[in-house]
Amino acid sequence: MELEAIPGVGSKTAAALSELDDPERALRTGDVAELASAPGITEGRAAAIARGAIRERHDDPGGFLATDRAEELYRDALDLLKDRTVTSYGEKRLETLYPSGVASRVEEVREFAERATDRDPGHEVLEALADVEPLADPRDVSVRDRCLATTDAERYTEAQQAIPELSVEVVEDTRDLADLARGYSTVVALDEEFAGVAVDGDVRVEPDALERPAEIVPERVLAFYAANRDCLRAAAEVHRTAGIDPPLDLDALESTLERVDSDGTVVGDDELDRLARAIDDLDAAVSTAESVANDELRSAIEERDVTVEGSDLLSLVEQGAGVDSLLSRELSDEYATAVEQAREELVDSLDLDSGEASVARRAFPEEPAFPVERDEEVVNRLREDLQAAKDRRATRRKRELAADLADRRADAEQLVRTALELDVELAVARFAEDFDCVMPEFGSDGAEASGFEIEGGRSPLLDVDFADVEPVDYDVSGVALLSGVNSGGKTSTLDLVALVTILAHMGLPVPAEDASVERFGELHYHAKTQGTLDAGAFESTLREFAGLATGGERTASHTDGSGGGADRLVLVDELESITEPGASAKIIAGILEELRGRDVTGVFVSHLAAEIREMADYDVPVDGIEAKGLEDGELVVNRSPVKNHLARSTPELIVEKLAGDSDGQFYDRLLEKF
Ligand SMILES: Nc1ncnc2c1ncn2[C@@H]1O[C@H](COP(=O)(O)OP(=O)(O)OP(=O)(O)O)[C@@H](O)[C@H]1O
């Protein structure tokens, strides 16, 4: 895919996107999280890029939301959906859904939505989803117990690039290798020439090591799982609770994850634990062993009567020998016993194996002395041996684990992606359930719908509880005026029509019992202005309507939904408020005349319906939201507009009520004026 062909993507953004592992997949699937991980791309921008890619794929000219109010209602609809996501990924992903006039795009989302509404957003699934998030890139790994060694400068550079996690050392000969082996638990020599050399320590000659980085640095593989452990577990749980077929064996994944902790260390290995404990406890264990030996020796000395013959004593003194010699001569058995106890104590308390034990035993010298003292050099040697054994063991275990996990990464990524997508599906499912939605039709029996037809529509955006929203039936084909009492629900009806139209063109279910909508290319919703407009604003409003009136004549080719014709839905709320009442009626009548016969479906809410009809040169259809009457001073309204019916206005209703209540002639005469 040519990245710069996407609307809104310039060379800089294209360069940032091409740094992603698979920008095409991210764009194709609308993976906003992945797109936002490109350098310098914010989440909002990522959503816009994803929308651009979709438009490009469907040859969608965009521009469906043609006015601010239309855009506002789209945002409101999106918010209702976003409120029903669990993950922040889901929220962002929803931004890729937008209303479109192109059938293929709408169809694509409809398939998704139909799958979504079959889902059961169970409590357990939602709970598991809470811990799913887009996979994190593991932090840079640096491994200090291993190094690479080579005699060759070119190999050196190659090694640094292939395995940046390890330090690479230049060596000249076997002696250099031996030096390195003292500083590292494992040295991997890259040159064939070292094959067969005998060096102390763990030195491996592996000329092909650079081709097997995951074996040399299993940490690289493990870092991904370590960084994403909780998320992978949660994604596994999502699959289980939602009953989705996982791309890999969940039990096996989970038991492998049990064996790495969050910083990539292997856990749950007894031998490793033993070695780690021995290293930690070494100093304390040596001190205890010393004390054991000295206590033993002290009490042995205290209990012994040492008889030294005069000549022996003399000889000892002449030799300048100290008490140690006396000890050696007289108490060697006791010393041997005490030292043996110390050695046993050390070996037992650290749970050393036989090789380690033979080093440990040398920590207490054969030569009798009091007090018994450790040989610090031997203790250090033991410490190094234990550390090296631990490092080697850890690396081996990591290598085994990494081998297990290496080829599961793609599946693990899929596991998380499916879980995140499920969040989006469940948000749609919950939206549909919460607002009793239905999938709208764009026509029936092969014929495209003309205008809109809504049955039992209930707007979730009203300022009353959804349970108290009264269902509205309304259909318009062509352009109609909508009359009605104050607060009868005219604006709310326009909002409902706009919302249903937007959701339908997003490919989503709509809050109605039944709905059929023409495939529109643009939605123009003009909200009621607050007060009369000044000359400039009035002029620009007129210009907007002039633009609407220049659309093509209604033709068969424009109703095929191919995107060739921008059929428009025009919703206008009390346009009369832009100027004086007399002029308003003339202007609205003129606009209606212009729109007639073009690719426009329209609803013009107005209190001047009668006057407009009088001014217009054709019989403008008028629908009405009718008050059934006044009850306790409150209007009782039938919220569904009555077709071809000019609703009585609120003043008329009040005069009628007064005329009925009083005997005077005034109200009757007033009523006759209506
Ligand atoms: N379908 C409905 N179900 C329940 N309440 C509704 C419904 N439609 C409207 N209402 C209530 O009536 C109020 C007034 O509705 P709305 O503003 O749409 O009336 P209007 O006819 O446009 O009024 P005006 O002529 O004063 O502009 C809403 O705020 C809402 O509380």
Automatic annotation (TrEMBL):
Keyword set includes Signal: no
Cofactor: a divalent metal cation
Binding site for ATP: G484, V485, N486, S487, G488, G489, K490, T491
SMART domains listed in its UniProt record: MUTSac
Coiled-coil spans in chain: 372-399
Keyword ATP-binding: yes
Keywords, ordered alphabetically: ATP-binding, Coiled coil, DNA-binding, Endonuclease, Hydrolase, Nuclease, Nucleotide-binding
Domain DNA mismatch repair proteins mutS family as annotated: residue spans: 477-674
GO molecular function, one term: hydrolase activity
Protein's job: Has ATPase and non-specific DNA-binding activities.
Protein family (similarity comment): Belongs to the DNA mismatch repair MutS family. Archaeal Muts2 subfamily.
Protein name from the UniProt record: DNA-binding protein MutS2
Gene that produces this protein: mutS2
